[in-house]
Amino acid sequence: MTLGCAMGVACLAAVLTIPAILSAHDGRAAAREPQPVTGVQHARSAKDTVFLTRQDPYGSRPFTRVFLSHPAGGSAAACRVACPPGIDHLPGAGEVLVSPRLHATLAEQPALTGLLPGRITDTIGPEGLTGPDELYAYIGRAPDQLPSSARPLASFGSAWTSTPAVDSSTLDILRFALGCLVLLPLAVFLSVCARLSAEARARRLAALRLLGLSVKGTLRVNAVETVAAALLGALLGVVAYALANEVLAHVGLPGLQWYPPDGRPSAAVLAVCLLACPGLAWSVGRHRAREAALRPLQVRRGAQPRAPKKYGLLLLLPGLGVICGYCALGVLGRDPSGGPANAVLVPVGVLLTGAGLVLALAPATAWLARRLAGTTQSLPLALAMRRNEVEPGSSLRVVTGLVLLVYAASLAQGVLVELAHISRPTSPTQEYALPFSDLSEGQRTRVRQVDGIRAQALAMDSWIPRVSSTTPRITAVVADCGQLAAFTAVSVRGCVDGKVQRLTDSDMAGDPDARPGRTYPFLLSTGGSRQPGERKLLVTLPRDHLVIRARRPSAFVGADILIPPSALPAGQHPATGRLLLLSGSTPYTVRTALDGIGTIAPTAEIEAVGVNIESLQQITVIKSLLAAGMILGLAIGVAAFAVSAADRALERRGRIATLNLLGARPLTVRAAQCIQVLLPLTIGLAGALVAGRLAESSYLITGGGTVHWDGDGLPLLAACTAGILLTAALASLPLIRRHVELEHIRRD
Fold it and tell me: Fewer Cβ atoms within 10 Å of its own Cβ: the N or the C terminal residue of the chain?
C-alpha cells in the first residue's frame, strides 16, 4: 500500500502542477507585454519611444522580435520607459538582446542573423521568458528605421497575455481529458491498493475482535495502520515527483519547457496529495475493517461474497443515452454544436459512461459467467466461469484500470482530431503575404529572388472614399497568366496575357459587389505609402469571366479581377495591398523562404497564409500533455494490473492447493486462471472501445469541427487492446506446482 500510494501521489502531483506551469508561462508573457500609448494609435512624436512587434513561425514554434526605437538623440539609459522583466536596460540603436535559446540557435542557423540587425550585447534572463526554449529578442533601431506602423510605447506589462500557452477554452478541454486519462485510473488504482491492503488485514482484525477487542478499538487499529502507510507513501510520492521535476524541467516536453520553480508543488497541491490519498485509503479500508469488526467469524471462515449489485446500469444507461443521442443527430445531418447545454451534457455523459462501464462490469461478468458455466463441457472454462460467477469482484480489480485507459484514449484522440483543422495546411504550396507599404522598391525586387520562391503577384482592394462607405469594393490580383497558374490548384484555360479578365472561383459563390460593366478605382503611388495627389487606376469589370480554382487556403480566394502587370503605369505601384509570394510547403523550404524574406525586410509583417503559428504551438503543447497523460495512465493501469494480479496469485494459493490435492493438472489450473481474467477484461475492453468511439464522436459532433467520425485512430487502438489481452493472459499465469502445502488447504 505504501508503494502504491507513492506512485499514485507522484502521478497526482504531476497532473495537478500542469495548470501552475501553464499559469507561470502566461504570467511571464503578460509581464513583458508592450503597452501602447492609448488614444494616439499610429501617431508618434520625436519624444516617444516606439515599438514594433513581429512574430514569425520557426518550424512549429513562434519567433518573436520586439523592435524598439528611443527618442531622437536619446539613449537606452535616458529612456523614461520602465524595462520589461529579464533585462536591466533597453537596447540602443544597433544593439540586440536575445534569449539563451535563440543565441544557441543563431550558432546553428547563421541565416537567422539577418532577422536581427545589429550586434548581440546581452541575453534575456528567465524572468522575461516563458521557458528555456523560447525564441525572443529585443532589437534597438534608429527612429527612421521603423515604419509608420510602429506605435508609441507607454509601458511593459499587462493583466493578461495575447499569446497564452493554451487557450482558456482549450484548457478546459485539456483538463477534462487529463482527468479521464489520469485521475480516473488513479482513483481506481489507489482504491485497489487500499482494498487489497484491507483484505490482507481483514483476517487479522477479525482475530483481534474474537480475542475481545471492541469494535471501536478494531476500527482504530485499522485507521492508524492505514493512515500511517498511506501518509508514508504520499510523502515518498511527493519527494519522487519533486526530484523528477528537477530533471524533466531541463528536458521538457515537445513545445513546452519550464523552469524548475514553476513545476514545484504548491501548498495547495501538497495539501491535496498528503490529505486526499490517506483519506481515500482510510475510507476504502474502513468498509472492510467494519465488516471484520462486526462479523469476525464470517471473515475468518471466508464466507461467500455477496452478489454484485446492478446499480452501475443506472449510470451507464443515461450516459450512453446522451452520447448516442448526439451521434444520432450527427447521422441525421443536424448540427447540435453551439448550444450552451453541450458544455454540460457531453462531459456528464462521458463521465457517467466511464463510471457505468466500471460499475456494470461485475454484474455483466457474473451473468455471462453463469450462462457459460451452465452450457460448457470444458473443465478449465467451467472452473473459471464458476469462480467469476461467485466472486466477479476479484477479477475486476485486475482489469478496471486497463478498461478506463482504453476508454480515455478514445477521448484523447477526439481532442486531437478537433484541434487538427487549425494545424498547418496540407497544400503542396505555401503563400506569403507582405504589406506593400512595408517594402521599399529594392526590397520588393530582392524578396522575389529569395531561394525557394516560385512565383509572385500583387493583391489589392479597390478604393472607397471612407471606411464606412457603402461603395462596392472588389479584390484584384496583378499577375500574368503564368503567375496565375502557379497560384491556382488546376490549370487555367482561356487566360490571355495583357488583358483585364474577370475571375470566378468554381468552389465559391459570386461576389455581389462585382458587377460586370462597372468601373472601380484603384489607388496608385510612386512609393509604398499613400500620399496626397495619388493617381487612380480605373478598371472596368468585363462581362466575360475566367474560371479558376484557388487553393485552400490562399490569398487568391475571393479575387474578382485579374489585372496584367502591363496595365500599371510606369513607375506607379499600388498605394495599398499585399505582395504575394509562393514556395513549396516542405518545412525546410518554408523555413528557408521565411529566413530569406526576413533578412531582406526584417521589420516587415510576414504572413504565412494559412499557418496559425499560435495554434500550431498550442497543438504541440496539447499533444505533449496528452501524451504525458497517456504515459501516466498506462503506468497506473499496468501498476494496478500488476498489484491485483500478484494479490490474486496469493489469494488463490489455497484454491490451487485444493485443486492439486484433487488431482487437477497444472495446465487445467493455468487455463482456468487465464480465462478467469480474460473474460471480464474482454467484456470491459470491448465495451470501452465501443463506448469510447461513441463518446469521441459525440464530442466531435458538438465541437463544431468538420470531422464528426474519426476512424484513423481505431486500428492502433484495436491493436493496443489486443496487446493488452495477450499481456494480461500471460501475466495471469502464476507458478503452478504439484506440491501441496498443507497450510494452504482450507480446513472448513
Answer: C
Strand-pair category, 34-36 with 151-156? antiparallel
What are 477-517's pLDDT values in tens digits?
A: 998 888 888 888 887 888 888 888 888 887 777 778 788 88
Q: What nine digits make up the cell of 215?
A: 469494535
Q: Mapping DSSP to helix (H, G, I), strand (E, B) and coil, where does residue 562 land? A: strand
Cell 537596447 found at:
91
According to the 3-state scheme, what is the secondary structure of 111-162?
Answer: HHHHHCCCEEEEECCHHHCCCCCCEEEEEEECHHHCCCCCEEEEEECCCCCC
Q: Look up residue 373 and give its amino acid.
A: A
Q: Is 67 helix (H, G, I), strand (E, B) or coil?
A: strand
369 in Cβ contact with 392 (< 8 Å): yes
Q: What whole-number distance in Å separates Cα of residue 584 and Cα of residue 591?
A: 10
**CA separation (Å) from 722 to 365, 457, 513, 589, 687?**
19, 54, 59, 41, 14
The per-residue pLDDT for range 167-215, each reduced to its tens digit, is 776 777 777 777 777 777 777 777 777 767 766 677 788 888 888 888 8
Report for 382-386, 614-618, 634-638: range of highest mean pLDDT: 382-386
- Please check whether residue 142 is in contact with residue 69, taking contact to mean a CB–CB distance below 8 angstroms: yes
Q: How far is CA 140 from CA 113, 145, 213, in A?
A: 14, 10, 81
pLDDT digits (tens, 9 = 90+) for 82-107: 788 999 888 988 899 999 999 998 88
Q: What residues form DSSP beta bridges with 523?
A: 536
What is the pTM assigned to this prediction?
Answer: 0.71
C-alpha 84/C-alpha 155 separation (Å) is: 8
Return the ∠ at Cα 144 (arms to 138 and 145), rounded to 5°: 45
Model confidence pLDDT, tens digit, residues 71-80: 754 555 444 5
